[in-house]
Amino acid sequence: MSAKVWLVGAGPGDPELLTLKAVRALNAAQVVMIDDLVNPAVLEHCPGAKIIPVGKRGGCRSTPQEFIHRLMLRYARQGYCVVRLKGGDPCIFGRGSEEADWLGAHGIEVELVNGITAGLAGATQCGIPLTLRGVARGVTLVTAHTQDDSSLNWQALAQSGTTLVIYMGVAKLEEIQSELLAGGLPANTPVAMIENASLPQQRECRSELAGMCEAAWAFELKAPAVLVIGAVAGVGQMAVVERRLG
Known about the structure:
With 246 residues, the protein is of the alpha/beta class.
């Protein structure tokens, strides 16, 4: 496992959601480049490694991507086993394939290790099934933050008939709400806003689409958070109530 780069998904925050393969890679790591949203408890699996923070957060000072590329390349060429540790899954809004392609083009062996994504873990913790027979025939994962600030095809999303899981949407709640309503999604569509997915401090706010922004402001919703929009958000709420009553 030496002289290569592992692109490892650390999951949404709960260290118990790490895969065995992720733990194995961390055990062997000599250099770990870690994102801001990774729970520091995960580093218990690589006590002897050199830890390098390379965080990227919206609205905060971020490590340039080109610097991250060259840092991985430098340590790999020196013969170290490098782990690039990312929150969630490296290939879901994590630039995993970009980094793998760049390293591969420079002759570096790369292995991707999946992690549980925040949209799935947060919804599960709230009792929300992202798909449900007779209710939601699929799930669509989208990010509200794009590299070129281009707008999504909200009308197509509104009419997709799938559960929408929106990442990085806290700063664009008003746009998301207005565009989905304009696209034809009913005003009473259930919404779950989930903050700090899978962590002990996870919080959730439920509303309908028409009242989503007001509910978020009253709740003081903060990033990192995911939005789950669709009928299953209401079904999940009923399931949580039933479990509590049981």
